[in-house]
């Protein structure tokens, strides 16, 4: 349970944990449902607003607990309706949350860690190094904040957020307990009542944790593939050296087969010009995914300064998509949203206090590159 000083933060408690909490303070379990509805359906963080909770209990709750969401540092709204919040978490770092409206859907992209230790070569979050795991309250707090900002409370009526994807900053399977607790609250009717098919966890491939996830919860799974062979994937997604493609894909297959119903794996594939966007890569991908029920989401690379990568041309993207499509795959290309507020995948920068010191090395490399560019410009 999330605590500051000696107060329990009720925001991050699952229904079961909330019932245990009320029992631990000598109260009836049904109080859990009442309080959860106030918090998640009505966006309340003040015990005095809970009109069906008697004054004595409200005072007792105030003495031993709190409802504390991360601090909102900024909220930006893009011309296309995309919204981005920067929130500060307890470690002092900032993370980002993005809301993307599309058709009748509203997808919230939620962060799980401040920074990321995994250092995928094309990801700006990876370049910032790792600072901290978010608490369950900080993960679900992003949903709470977004939901409140739409003024669509109660959350279950006139819902703005129909889908949640754990695709913000961080690797969700490396902050397992807190992410699973938060996803439970997202799907709970006392929480946000989002259907299990519409909550998606995206992973770069922490194979043993995929198996663990399958035993604990039923959410949609996305694998960040990015390369169709181990040699290339080792370079782009370094965790592949620990859990190579054969191992991670087997874990994904076990995960979706356990779900039983007609569920499929989402494959995310960031297209990098001349690196993984050639016909040979599409062919290898077709062979690799032949026996896996999946849908493929191609993400044209979103550039950031000194990444060393480029976005492929629209023709190259279409060519890649067509090859997969002809092999019978369901393939979509993710359009970039919220460009004017830097809200695209892999561009989430937050303000991470780096404990790995990776960002220092990255800044040093950038500096060298800038200096040499300056020199070249000067010599022209
Ligand atoms: N850590 C998890 C989830 C967060 S990243 C994961 O890696 O799956 C969400 C998606 O954005 C991942 O597929 C990631 O590889 C992709 N991504 C990261 N940087 C990107 C960039 N610069 N351009 C396009 N996609 C990027
Ligand atoms: Fe971490 Fe995902 Fe970025 Fe890789 S792509 S560095 S796992 S956030």
TrEMBL record:
Kindly give the SUPFAM superfamilies that the UniProt entry links to this protein: Radical SAM enzymes
Which Gene3D superfamilies has this protein been placed in?
1.10.150.530, Aldolase class I
What InterPro entries would the database entry show?
Answer: Aldolase_TIM (IPR013785), Methyltransferase_A (IPR040072), RlmN_N (IPR048641), RNA_MTrfase_RlmN (IPR027492), rRNA_lsu_MTrfase_RlmN/Cfr (IPR004383), rSAM (IPR007197), rSAM_sf (IPR058240)
Active site, per annotation? 96 (proton acceptor), 345 (s-methylcysteine intermediate)
GO MF entries: 4 iron, 4 sulfur cluster binding; metal ion binding; rRNA (adenine(2503)-C2-)-methyltransferase activity; rRNA binding; tRNA (adenine(37)-C2)-methyltransferase activity; tRNA binding
Q: What class of enzyme is it?
A: transferase
The similarity annotation says: Belongs to the radical SAM superfamily. RlmN family.
Mind telling me what this protein is named?
A: Dual-specificity RNA methyltransferase RlmN
Organism, scientific name: Pseudomonas matsuisoli
The gene that this protein is the product of is rlmN
